[in-house]
Amino acid sequence: ANTSVASAIKVGYLCDKYNMFCLEEPTTTLIPELHKVIAEKIKTPLAGGERIFSRWQFYNFLKDHSIRLAQPDVCTCGGITETKKVCDLAHIFDVKCQVHVAGGPISTAASLQVEAAIPNFCIHEHHFRSTQPGIASLCKYDLQPENGRYEVPKRPGIGNELSDLAFETAMAKA
Fold first, then answer.
1. Has residue 104 got a pLDDT over 90?
2. Are the C-beta atoms of 90 and 120 separated by less than 8 Å?
3. Cα–Cα distance between 134 and 166 in angstroms, integer?
């Protein structure tokens, strides 16, 4: 996200050469117009959202068609409802969505629920942190893909909850 526009375009040319799925947040999100400059120079679709925090901020990237994969984060975007609103807005602009998941099992469960409820879902992010036993043990259920696919939890709420270990550890440090 700290790459200059010129550098991002050069990286974009490499992405084009190797037919990459997308180029994620090639430059700062503080100036949305910079993404448009990059998008006009390369063929690889731009993805962005982990540093965009509301539907009003996403609107600037969607209206100029600079990002083709929106990546709102349930934990930083205002929760499940705001993330769903971002995905609905992206759908209006024919933009696919992949909820950004770089947290733990609670954000994974919430993200799966959002992705199951949107028509423009594209792909689920499986972050290495969610495979680490120390993090997985913080919840009762370890949500992992099987054969490359997740099953959306059908349990109440988001389908996961904090484990006794998470509460004990939190209380021990308080």
1. no
2. yes
3. 10
